[in-house]
Design brief:
Layout: H1 8-12, H2 19-28, H3 37-44, H4 50-54, H5 62-69, H6 77-90, E1 108-114, E2 122-127, E3 133-137, E4 142-146, E5 153-157, E6 164-169, E7 175-179, E8 184-188, E9 195-199, E10 205-210, E11 216-220, E12 225-229, E13 236-240, E14 245-250, E15 256-260, E16 265-269, E17 276-280, E18 288-293, E19 299-303, E20 308-312, E21 319-323, E22 332-338, E23 341-346, E24 353-358, E25 363-368, E26 380-381, E27 387-391, E28 396-402
Pfam families: Vgb_lyase
InterPro entries: Cyt_c-like_dom_sf, Vgb, WD40/YVTN_repeat-like_dom_sf
Protein name: Virginiamycin B lyase
Length: 403
């Protein structure tokens, strides 16, 4: 049975996944026998192996399954029905993955938009100086622009091999991206569409942040490197660092803070010398993906592997951690501080839960993300102190209005 032409958008996002690797994945993770199996294998493995389905938390009805995969691929109605029925029968909901939602007295409003190119793995939204919302479609090598007032969206194609991991705007409205697959830092001028690329020694630039000194600092996770780019001169400097540097932030004093996803450390980098001072976190199993700063200069972080959030006092070295509401398997991922309140998500849960933590009262409140699946991998605080989120697997960009 042939698939519709609209599957092309999903196939495009393969970008580096070989047929051999997919075949090996299928051999190791075969699906249960049943009506619709062959169609699932043909449609779903265009972008990922069947092991992704087997590892999922499942859904209790064909309608829920269809809602999810319709954000990834456009199928004919009859094909979509067969796939949804098969998945609901063989992969029902795993109730053990439900989050522990904590009630509270804070109201939020979540608005989500599905981005145009299906299967692109929408992620890492940011707000530009003009108030527009931007995202990166990593698997499709694009960035997109959203007008949150009208819902109008426009996508910009980047070099096909770039696969941008994260983006950050500059003061002029240019969008800078980390070319995670072609070893570049890139700049898109939205007005002209022109793209400027700077080649990096690190093979996988990951996350980036602009410093008050005008330079762009970035991490490269698998290369275990940190980098600094001067946009005015194009001069790049890169240094080796501890295993798997991930999130990156700048504090009010100009120190560049690094989260490490390969060791139990947080790093404080001097922006001039690029020397790093390391803070050891208590448990060797600790891995940190994202971090942020509060008004007192404390560093807040997600302890992704142990289901906790933590606070580091850089002056004393004191570290305090709190258990996330959904427990050790909740896998906190993205984090931001708004008015000294900590916001993060529990990415190991289905639906993905957004959590608010008040450090003064030491109280939690949490909400289920409406689209429910996809994982928030990064968040952004807007000028109005709201929160930008996303769901990567289901191509959603979201705005959390905090009342």
């Amino acid at each position: 049975m042939s698939l519709p032409a609209s599957l092309t958008a999903a196939v495009v996002v393969l970008l580096g996944t070989t047929q051999a690797s997919l075949a090996q994945n299928n051999l190791q993770s075969s699906l249960p026998e049943g009506a619709g199996k062959a169609l699932v294998e043909k449609a779903c493995t265009a972008c990922h192996g069947v092991s992704t389905i087997k590892r999922s938390a499942g859904y209790s009805s064909p309608e829920e399954w269809r809602r999810v995969f319709s954000t990834m691929i456009d199928l004919q109605d009859e094909q979509a029905t067969r796939i949804a029925n098969y998945l609901a029968q063989h992969f029902p909901e795993d109730p053990s993955r439900r989050p522990t939602l904590v009630p509270g007295n804070v109201d939020i409003e979540i608005t989500e938009w599905t981005t145009p190119t299906l299967g692109q793995r929408t992620r890492d939204p940011i707000e530009a100086p003009d108030g527009s919302i931007w995202w990166t479609g990593m698997w499709a090598s694009l960035v997109g622009k959203l007008n949150p007032n009208t819902g109008e969206m426009k996508e910009y194609n980047l070099p096909p091999s770039a696969r941008p991991h994260s983006i950050v705007p500059d003061e002029d409205g240019n969008i800078w991206y980390t070319g995670n697959s072609n070893a570049t830092i890139g700049k898109l001028n939205p007005d002209t569409g022109n793209i400027t690329e700077y080649e990096t020694q690190a093979k996988d630039p990951h996350s980036a942040v602009f410093h008050p000194n005008g330079n762009l600092y970035f991490t490269a996770q698998h290369a275990a490197m940190l980098g600094r780019l001067d946009p005015e001169t194009g001069v790049l400097k890169e240094v080796n660092t501890e295993a798997r540097p991930y999130g990156i932030k700048v504090d009010s004093n100009g120190t560049v803070w690094i989260a490490y996803n390969g060791t139990n450390k947080i790093g404080a980098m001097n922006p001039n010398t690029m020397e790093v001072r390391y803070y050891n976190l208590p448990d060797k199993r600790t891995r940190v993906r994202r971090l942020d700063l509060d008004s007192q200069g404390n560093v807040w972080y997600v302890n992704s592997t142990r289901g906790k959030i933590g606070r580091l006092n850089p002056d004393t070295g004191a570290i305090t951690e709190w258990d996330s509401p959904s427990g050790t398997d909740s896998h906190p991922y993205a984090l931001a501080v708004i008015d000294d309140i900590i916001w993060y998500n529990e990415s190991g849960m289905r639906p993905d839960a957004l959590v608010r933590f008040d450090p003064k009262a030491e109280t939690f409140q949490s909400w289920a993300i409406p689209s429910g699946v996809g994982i928030i991998r990064n968040v952004w605080v807007t000028e109005e102190e709201n929160l930008l989120i996303h769901q990567s697997s289901t191509n959603q960009v979201g705005l959390v209005r905090i009342n």
